[in-house]
Amino acid sequence: MVEIRATTCPRGLLNGPCGGALNGKCDVDGKECPWFSIVERFNVDPSTLFEEHPLLLEMEDLVERDSAPRASAFWRNIERGKAFSVEFPVAAVKGTEDSLEILEMVEADMIAIPDNPLGYPHYDPVAVACYLKSLGLKTGVMPHITAKDRNLSALTSELRTAQVFGCEFVLVTTGDWPGFAIPSRPVFDLDSANLVRLARLVFAGVMPTKEVVEVTSRPRVATTMNPHYGPKVEAKRLARKLIAGGEVFFTQVVASTESVRNIEGTLKELERYADVDVPVVVSLLYPLREEMKPFLKGMRIPVGNESFEELLEELKAVDAVRGINLIVSSREIGEWFGLLEVAREKVKEVFG
């Protein structure tokens, strides 16, 4: 183990860089990311750069066996290369009636529930996931669980809730800086790789209190891929997450063929560190309105002139891309349903 510390990281991460250091600049203070140059310059195996949280190391000694991942239509269609998930419209849903409409009308393999994107407070993702399950939703659910404003105890509770109440997936990641929208204090007890490891340990029945509980089935653990990083750095970040126990990568929003090429380049680079066929699900925004492009560029997401259909065709040609995660942009539920139907048909035409 090579012990490396970046003491000036605003998030205080054990394993960096996080997703907020595009072009080597920290999204919090605009300074050079101390982690970025370390990972970019040093030619070391990512396993030696994975600094596991001391408590998690102790928990590993108590694992007796892994629990079985839950069966889901989403995973079956990942294996077929045509998985389709839809992001829960946190900006459009105003009450129970809207949720019931989603229950009745959305045709997808899974519904993903985001966690306060960009630091704007919406709904608790695990609570929404469990609520949808309680209404009788047959489609799988995937709450996002982020480390940005939860301590180790809260993260464990969220993971345990997702496991006990039947979530098919969880997506775990560092999360956007919580103070972007309101003066909210960050936490970051764990980085994304250690959060992946915590999820796998909790789903194996081991709690941070050293209590071992009976677990028969578990959610699959998804984590994120940033196709806007350079392939050399991003491949090492992905290798860490695989070592920690990640099972599928969901990308950040892709809005150009440049990012599609980066997916291919990153996965090629990843082959240097991991001999594993890991599936990738690509997040697409629909519709990509002109007024949204400056905002995406401000987040350092490359934006091209390709149509939604052209991006789908480009992605279909990438072997590792096994599905689409659709984010429909609307603040009105009726419009959201209309746009969803149009986009879903376009995805179906390409991916089947």
From TrEMBL:
Single GO biological process annotation from the record: methionine metabolic process
Superkingdom, taxonomy of origin: Archaea
SUPFAM superfamilies: FAD-linked oxidoreductase
Pfam families assigned: DUF5981, MTHFR
Pathway: One-carbon metabolism; tetrahydrofolate interconversion
InterPro entries: DUF5981, FAD-linked_oxidoreductase-like, Mehydrof_redctse-like
Keyword field: FAD, Flavoprotein, Oxidoreductase
Gene Ontology MF annotations: methylenetetrahydrofolate reductase [NAD(P)H] activity
Domain Methylene-tetrahydrofolate reductase C-terminal-like per the UniProt entry, residue ranges: 7-43
Cofactor(s) required for function per UniProt: FAD
The protein's name in its UniProt record: Methylenetetrahydrofolate reductase C-terminal domain-containing protein
